[in-house]
Amino acid sequence: MHNRRTFMLGATAAAAALGLAACGGEGAGSGGPDPDAPPSEQTVGVAMPTQTYERWVADGNNIKEGLEGKGFTVDMQYADDDIPTQQQQIDQMINSGVSVLLIASIDGASLSAQLDAAAAAGIPVVAYDRLLTDSENVDFYVTFDNYKVGVNQANALLYGLGLLDESFEPADDAPEGPLNVELFAGSLDDNNAHLFWDGAIDTLQPYFDDGTLEVLSGQMDIDQAATQRWEQETAQKRMETLLTTHYNGGEELAGVLAPADPLSRGIINALQNTGLGPTIDEGLPIVTGQDAEIASIKLIADGVQHSTIFKDTRDLADQAIVAAESILTGGEPEANDTETYDNGAKVVPSYLLEVQMVLESNYEEILVDSGYYTEEQVEAGQL
Asked: pLDDT grade, residue 293 (50/70/90)?
């Protein structure tokens, strides 16, 4: 049961589908899809949050290449994690008359005025990976199953601690608790951060309840664990403070739930700087992650970072392109979830993709054999 989920469930698929019809008609502006126009005469506006994270660069490149390969024009803008910049970029796209908008938001609740303007101009909106909230004017959502991301992160932590075996069943030789762990969350203005947290905490809660796991700092609420803008330096400073405050008297830290690879690397820096490790085999606590960034894959291969979650941005970009092309040609994107993602104003029809847990034992199979990275890139820790 998703007993801590913050999203309202149970709305009907029919209600969820109303938005596309509402936005797809004639609007006040000159934008919007024209099914009779050739692809070369239709422009897709793509708003991305930042180029700081490796994965957003990959997302942008994949989307641009895929759409242009189908003949569409792409107006892509990165906002450098600055909300006013993203607002201005989307305003500019609307004023230029784009046919459809793909938006990966910095703050999902910050674009209501832009979404209203898009609807008035007849421009459909596809939310990309991050849900756009508090607006009726969101037509479709493409993302990964972000609750399962959190579940996988928690299971990776439990496996690394020896509480689960290789089949992710309770281990016969599990260590006796209590084992001390600390919890990190993402940026509170990113809707996905809450889903990651819910999935992880729901999975870990039984171990907290029976005393197998303890959070020595007592910081078990998402507000306490949050990391604004997903910044590596912020995570490193918080980990340093936790170590100084709660682990300076011989207390042992067994593991850290980290929701993204940059945070993982900041946490690992803090741990190593106190003399722990430098590898897991040499006493470094178990640290999880997400996004399979190349620097973290090298750390996993070297036995430093325990795990990450791979969300294949190639597949996400492909699905976004499918959704955009469907809209541009007068159709309606196919959803595989019409209940989960209530954005506060409507249930947004969504397409969810699966995720994979990456460990030292399987990174080659998942990432190298699939062509996502080369072995040389993993060895160098850079693209």
From this structure: very high
**Per-residue pLDDT tens digits for 169-224:** 999 999 998 999 999 999 999 999 999 999 999 999 999 999 999 999 999 999 99
pTM of the predicted structure, to 2 decimals: 0.86
| Domains, the chain | 13-138+312-354 (3.40.50.2300), 146-311+358-380 (3.40.50.2300)
β-partners of residue 310 are 356
Residue appearing with tokens 């303007």: 117
> Cis (ω within 30 of 0) for the bond into 178?
yes
CA dist., res. 89 & res. 100, Å (int): 14
Residue found by looking up tokens 């660069």 in the block? 57
pLDDT digits (tens, 9 = 90+) for 145-175: 999 999 999 999 999 999 999 999 999 999 9
- CB contact set of 272 (below 8 Å; sequence gap of 6+): 278, 284
Three-state SS at 103: strand
- Render the burial of 298-327: b for 16+ CB within 10 Å, e for the rest: bbbbeebbbbbbbbbbeebbbbbbebbbbb
Lookup result for tokens 């609740």: 109
